[in-house]
Amino acid sequence: MKYYTEYHSKDRILQKLEQLKKLLEPTRHYRFMEFCGGHTHAFFRYAFPSILPSNLEMIHGPGCPVCVLPAERITAVIRLLEQQSSNLILYSYGDLMRVPGENRDSLLKARARGLNIRMLYDPLEMIEFCKKEPEKIHVFFAIGFETTTPPTALLLQKAKALGLANILVYCNHVLTPPAARALLSDVNEPLLLDGIIGPGHVCTVTGSHAFDEIACDFKIPVAIAGFFPSDLLSALENLIEQTHAKTHLAINTYGRSVNESGNLLAQQAVREVFSRRDHFIWRGLGEIPFSALKISDEYRQYDLENKFEITYQKVPDNPKCLCAKILKGQKKPLDCSLFGKICRPDNPMGACMVSGEGSCAAYYGR
Amino acid sequence: MHETIELFHGSGAKKSHQLIRDIFFEAFDNPLLKEGADGVVLPNFQHELVITTDAFVVSPLIFQGGDIGKLAVCGALNDLAAMGARAYYLSATFILEEGLEIEKLKKIVQSMGHEARMAQVSIVAGDTKVVEKNKADQIYISVTAIGNPETECAPHPKKLRAGQKIILSGPLGDHGATILAARKDLVFEGNLKSDCSNLQPLILPLIKLFPSISCMRDPTRGGLSGSLHELMAVDHESKIGFRLNEEDLPVSPPVRGLCEILGLDPLTLANEGKMIIFCDADLALPILQQIRQHPLGQEAMIIGEVTDRPGQLEMKTIYGGERSLIWAEGDALPRIC
Q: Which residues of B touch A121 (CB under 8 A)?
């Protein structure tokens, strides 16, 4: 298969769905988690929850980068911008703009108040801005899993090569495998999963082997998957087969994009520019050791947290908000008393409602 | 050095007059405008009028398939078309940023003049103001269009009823995708091109042939999804919802490609040359056949129906699943990974 239309072909998908139904043992309940928010989004976009057999339950994981960013890290950078408003320009990916910080403030609201905040698609766009406005300090709000980390690394490598002194990175990059481990290690409320759909784009960078240890240590099958409907069904098929065969391998079902060792150039750039943080707080999941990146010593001069004294004050979530449990897969959006009533895409209380990749936003449009 | 707009061009002094005479009068060439009075008496007008007004702030000013001038004329004409009305006169207001190249202004104004002439409407009143550099983005245009209804029973949202069919006159999202790609310098195989066009030649004969068309709407900002949500938000006598068939929604391959890459939904992208037409079920096929005979409607489709589930915009997906489409929150924010 080569083209978009083939991966989306109605006949092919309906045929695969039939095969999947035949594969399932009718009396058995299956619980699979899609780790990645992109997969959550895709499942709902193709309305799979309404057509998959009812004994196949999808649990939504924490793989939405803006959802797991603690609110205090947004509030802290807005405060810094307020103090340094004549100096600093902040650049952010679009998804982050509406994520609520303290008192439901956001980058979008801060921009409306006059702070200099710009939205971009590609961090390398900043290089031109740095040259055009040399008197300003240009800060990139770096966020995301292994997928969005290489572009940040590239930005700093380029800045260094060009000798740019007016660029900083606010590093919030996090790592997938430690989060998956933390979820699977929770003994208080075990997820009782039969398998995991592994994040295809993360593995494009890391290589499929990034999930070998997890599959082995937790004795759980992992199917690394793409994002088209036929990809999702292939991954489910693999997980069902592995469940029946009682194997627990990390299988790459996204071969057209993922290979075993991943993108070595990207990995090299990331190793050069970043090092591991000892600990990092994830919204919902709490503190997870070695689960995030910071700017390496070699690139220290570009580290916002090194340049400025930033203090993080815990921002309390709405006590009724179930985002924490939803991110851990322990609750579903419909379990939350705020969902659809007070908490809506136009008025998100928790982070899961903000991004299209968040479980609550996906459920809202279901 | 290119000649540029200066604050004096909006001062009401000699420079203003020269600008208006050399650029606007020249391009819009008609006797009513040249009368130079504070207002204009519109001759030979029937007593029942339809009026609409629209503002245009697009960036970039010039894009594949059009420019802000063409867009301003077509946008206003299409609003009247949606009301089943033939446009006769336009007025236009220009807010210009100090420093705008006069050549660029000329090109845009000439494009407006051309589009108006093609549509056989006259731009009979106008105003120009200049604001300081950085107080506006080059040029903003506001256009008011005035016309007469072509039918005694003008299409209107209040005529929507459950069971009626929804027809879309062509593929979704061409304009929105083109603007987005131009802004980001994205190059796409198959070439994105805005659908910016005057729909009066498509719609007016149609409403003459099918005066019982219940409602029409041109899905500009917010796209198809936004327009349908707007219609549901209107205070109706009968509470209505809509149901779409994903399989029947026309989207061109380059638009689909751009949407896949940037994580956007073609249903929320702007269109500038499309009409959504609502009609009784038994008329849907004859209307569709009629639309398809016109070059602007060759790819028209029946895309869904009006339901009695108030406020619900539902979609049956290609694979037979069910989901609802929510009203997008502000601009489409692309997913980040």
A: 184, 262, 334
What pairs with residue A63 in β-bridges?
A36
Contacts of B133 (CB under 8 A, 6+ apart): B97, B98, B99
Which residue among A51, A144, A365 sits closest to B337, beta carbon to beta carbon? Answer: A144
* Spatial contact of A325 and A191, defined as CB atoms under 8 Å apart: no
* A 11-40 residues inside an 8 A Cβ radius of B: 13-14, 17, 37-38
For residue A120, give both structure tokens.
């971009």
| A10 contact residues in B (CB cutoff 8 A) | 247, 318-319
The alpha-carbon gap from A359 to the nearest alpha carbon of chain B, in Å, equals: 14
Inter-residue contact B206 to B279 (CB < 8 Å): no
Residues of chain A contacting residue B256, judged by C-beta atoms under 8 Å apart: 4
Interface test with B, best of A20, A95, A141 (most B CBs within 10 A): A95
For residue B41, count other CB atoms closer than 10 A to its CB. Answer: 9
Question: How much is the ipTM here?
Answer: 0.83
DSSP states of B90-158 as a string? EEEEEEEETT-BHHHHHHHHHHHHHHHHHTT-EEEEEEEEEE-TTSSSSEEEEEEEEEEESSSS---GG
List all residues of chain B from 170 to 209 with a beta carbon under 8 Å from chain A.
184
CA dihedral A250, A256, A261, A267 (to 10 degrees): -120
State which residue of chain B sits closest to A53, comparing Cα positions: B321
Taking Cα atoms as reference points, which of B259, B240, B303, B298 lies closest to residue B277? B303
Sorted by where each starts, the structural domains of chain B and their CATH numbers stand as 7-149 (3.30.1330.10), 157-324 (3.90.650.10)
Distance from CA of A230 to the nearest CA of B (A): 11
Q: Which of B131, B144, B212, B222 is nearest to B176 (CA)?
A: B222
> Are the beta carbons of A98 and B329 separated by less than 8 Å?
yes
The DSSP secondary structure of A211-259, one letter per residue, reads GHHHHHHTT--EEEE-SSHHHHHHHHHHHHHHHHHT---EEE--TTT--
Kindly state whether B317 is in contact with chain A, defined as any CB-CB distance less than 8 angstroms: yes
The dihedrals phi and psi of B270, each to the nearest 5 degrees, come to -70, 150
- Give A-chain residues touching B326 at CB under 8 angstroms: 345, 364-365
What is the CATH number assigned to the segment(s) A71-175+263-307? 3.40.50.11740
**pLDDT tens over chain B, length 337 residues:** 578 998 888 877 788 888 888 899 889 988 888 887 888 988 767 778 999 999 999 989 999 999 999 999 999 999 999 999 999 999 999 999 999 999 999 999 999 999 999 999 999 999 999 999 999 999 999 999 999 998 888 899 999 999 999 999 999 999 999 988 887 766 665 688 999 999 999 999 999 999 999 999 999 988 999 999 999 988 666 689 999 999 999 999 889 988 888 888 999 999 999 999 999 999 999 999 999 999 999 999 999 999 999 989 999 999 999 998 888 766 654 323 2
Residue B316's DSSP bridge partners are B245, B322
Please answer yes or no on whether B336 and A95 come within 8 Å at the CB atom. yes
> What CA–CA distance (Å, rounded) separates A266 from B167?
48
The ranges assigned to domains in chain A are 71-175+263-307
The rounded distance, in Å, linking the Cα atoms of A271 and A296 is: 8
Task: Give A98's contacts in chain B (Cβ within 8 Å).
Answer: 329-330, 333
- Cβ contact, residue pair B329, A51, below 8 Å: no
